[in-house]
Amino acid sequence: MRNPSGLLAPAVAVVLVAVVVAAVAGAWPPFVAVESGSMAPEIERGDLVVVTSTDRFPWGGLTGAAAPDAPTAFGAPGDVVVFDAPADGNPPILHRLAFPVTAGEDWTERADPDLLDGDCASIAACPAPHDGYLTYGDANGQYDQSAGITPVVREEWITAKALVAVPNLGWFRVGVDAAVARVGLLPTVLGVGGAAGVAGGFGALFLNRIGRSRRGRARRDR
């Protein structure tokens, strides 16, 4: 007879790991699944990124790539952050901070010309409508604000700072998000739960047969 606790053990272990990581990082959820290649090659689509809150010691504070004391994160200067511009209807964005700007500033005067498409008069986010940060994806050719991806990012829109990326572990989350968008939350939960139950049942049966086989060999050897 199957032991229900044996089937639950992997799920409980995953939950415990997530809780421990969240307690250390100070963010929930403590992981972000990457859905695009805009931060390649250091962070690829399908990677799982561990994040922390922006005020969590010793990772606290926000520093853009243009700062003279900018820390190196994912192979380049500047913090990589998760931010969510309100009311745009898009998923959170994981990009690098460039530099802070102030309301009314013509920030193109301080910008890297290689990351600009036009002058201040032709960019909707210039002059800066409010205090905040310019951002960019490492694999993109422009600032997000020059490309029209997002307005100047207010500090309160930044929800987390990226610490480390684990290759390919985010594909499950990406798949679940795609399924929710396609068929809805409840069918996705039922489908994932059913698949997990079937996989757990087959795994328990397989391990049980291996155990009985080993016990049988041990008795024969005696």
Task: Break the fold down into its secondary structure elements and pairings.
Layout: H1 4-25, E1 31-33, E2 48-52, E3 72-73, E4 76-77, E5 80-83, E6 93-101, E7 132-136, H2 144-147, E8 158-166, H3 171-183, H4 185-221
Antiparallel strand pairs: 1-2, 2-8, 3-4, 5-6, 5-8, 6-7
Helix pairs in contact: 3-4
What is the subunit arrangement here?
single chain
What is the typical, i.e. mean, pLDDT? 76
Net shape:
globular
Helix-strand sequence: HEEEEEEEHEHH
Q: Count of helical segments?
A: 4
Main sheet properties: 6 strands, antiparallel
Give the CA-CA distance, first to last residue: 27 Å
Question: What does the radius of gyration come to?
Answer: 23 Å
Q: Give the % helix.
A: 25-40%
What does this structure look like?
This protein is of the alpha+beta class and 222 residues long. Helices cover 34% and strands 18% of the residues. The chain has four helices and eight strands. The strands form two sheets. The protein has a six-stranded antiparallel sheet. Strands 3-4 form a two-stranded antiparallel ribbon. β3 and β4 form a beta hairpin. The protein is globular. The chain starts with a helix and ends with a helix. 26% of the residues are buried. The N terminus is likely disordered.
